[in-house]
Amino acid sequence: MAVTPVTFFRGAASTTSTTLYTGPATGTYIITNIAITNTASSAATATITIDGTAYVSGISIAANSTTAIDLKQPVVSTGTAKLITGLASATTVNFHITGVTI
User: Fold this and answer.
1) Is the pTM here over 0.90, yes or no?
2) For the segment 74-91, what is each residue's pLDDT rounded down to a tens digit?
3) C-alpha dihedral (69, 74, 77, 81), degrees to nearest 10
4) How far is CA 52 from CA 18, 30, 37, in A?
5) Do β-strands 65-78 and 53-61 pair in parallel, antiparallel, or remain unpaired?
6) Taking burial as the number of CB atoms within 10 A of a residue's CB, which of 34, 51, 72, 77 is the most buried?
7) Are 11 and 91 in contact (CB under 8 A)?
8) For 39-51, how does the pLDDT look when each residue is reduced to its tens digit (9 = 90+)?
């Protein structure tokens, strides 16, 4: 099996829940890093769900800062694609989500 580095999502957050990545219907991917950046001069919040379960829920991101989360979260699909979704309180929040597919 090949292990391939992947950028699952990189870009501005939406203020409504949005699909950031749709995994394969069968297979495994592993999320290894999430960075959440707030470029505004005031704090903002962000939420990320993995397969419908909140992983980061309403986390506060300080003004002009980045919160980095290192993890090893496997997501296994056995017939149904698994989603990463996210939203933020402002579009000044950016998500950077990386990992590997197997």
Assistant:
1) yes
2) 999 999 999 999 999 999
3) 10
4) 12, 16, 23
5) unpaired
6) 34
7) no
8) 999 999 999 999 9
